[in-house]
Amino acid sequence: MAGVTSEGHFVLDLPDTDAALALAGNGEQTLHHLQALTGASFVIRGLQLVIGGRPAQLERAAAVVELIRPLWQEGQAVSAVDLQAALTALDTGRRDAHAELADQVLARSQRGNLLRPRTLRQKAYVEAMERHDLTFALGPAGTGKTFLATVLAVRMLSERKVERLVLTRPAVEAGERLGFLPGDLQQKVDPYLRPLYDALHALLGAEKTTTLLEKGVIEVAPLAYMRGRTLDEAFVILDEAQNTTPAQMRMVLTRLGERSRMVVTGDTTQVDLPPGQLSGLVDAAEVLADINGVAVCRLTSADVVRHPLVQRVVDAYARRDQR
Question: Quick one: pLDDT at residue 105?
Answer without folding.
Answer: 81
